[in-house]
Amino acid sequence: MIPVMRPWFGPEEEAAVQEVIASGWVAQGPRVAEFEREFAAFVQAGHGVALSSCTTALHLALVLAGVGPGDEVVVPSLSFIATANAVRYTGATPVFADVDPATANLTAKTVEAARTPRTRAAIVVDQAGVPADLDEIRAAHPELALVEDAACAAGATYRGRPVGAGAELCAWSFHPRKLLTTGEGGMLTLGDAEGAARARRLREHGMSVSAADRHATGSTAPERYTEVGFNYRMTDLQAAVGLVQLRRLPELIARRRALAARYQELLAEVPGIGTVTDPDYGTTNYQSFWITLPGDFPMDRDALLAFLAGRGVSARRGIMAAHLEPAYADLPTPDLPATEWLTRNSLILPLFHTMTEAEQDQVVAAVRAAAEG
């Protein structure tokens, strides 16, 4: 079975983990701090705060933005459900907005259609690694706090710079489906030093001095807890893997973009099939390679998934629509035509660093056979 995604690991990651184990310090410590510095430098951000997941990064970003009960936050429904869930963790209400069908991202117009007098912030997702036009949204809505959900976008570019460069608050994922993985884990990048210091306290129960800092300095002074915090820490074991993965990232993206270009060329021969591409203002890292089906395709998306599986190809449904899930049935039903069309008519094809041309040919042949009925 050709998998949708396969992480790219080598002996370097194994050696990095062994080194951390030999050091005797495996929890949050010096490797986490090093990973924070290197990742922030890579995306041209002022500060990085390593966390247990992108979901926790989104939660802390909203806390830093002052979002709380009574507030509303505009989010795309077309996103993994964690985007909306993070809003509810603060006691605020997510308000679902539609997306541009070409990029699957929010736009200034779709944010405008969803906002109300209670709107405090918006979470702008770089869906599947395709950068959103953050400058356009910021210019149209300067009074809103903007949180960039770059869970899938490490290594993508926006207006000639890395995605996340200059973002006020930007959340990242290192889940195994992402290009850069630490198994589980995430990062919050931001430009504000005080905000970064507060986020580091909040990730460790609100502790005034981290356990790693007390150990490093030999301090015996008791820590203080000035506000209610969380347990959102990353371990040095994870960060050691992340440091190696970060150095692999440029090579990984180059390979994925080459495979994506080949997919686009081969699938252009299948009538009506749409493929994800770069927007005019940036480049995607092709974290996922999705296609859309025309209205006259011989089978629906779910039938196509089963057909592909029968031909040895593991594909996945396209991006979910959170507003259609039972968890959000209590909210008013929004009118999101682009979102609902995309979630019904898109699917994700296999794409990974070690994918061979023969495997890619097998995927395309299966799609072509389905198109021919």
UniProtKB/TrEMBL annotation:
Active site: K178
Cofactor(s) of this protein: pyridoxal 5'-phosphate
Coiled-coil region list: none
Keyword presence, Transferase: yes
Any one of the GO BP annotations: polysaccharide biosynthetic process
Keyword Lipoprotein: no
UniProt keyword annotations, A-Z: Aminotransferase, Pyridoxal phosphate, Transferase
Residues found modified as N6-(pyridoxal phosphate)lysine: K178
GO MF annotation list: pyridoxal phosphate binding; transaminase activity
Entry's family note: Belongs to the DegT/DnrJ/EryC1 family.
Protein name per Swiss-Prot or TrEMBL: Aminotransferase DegT
Annotated source species: Sphaerisporangium rufum
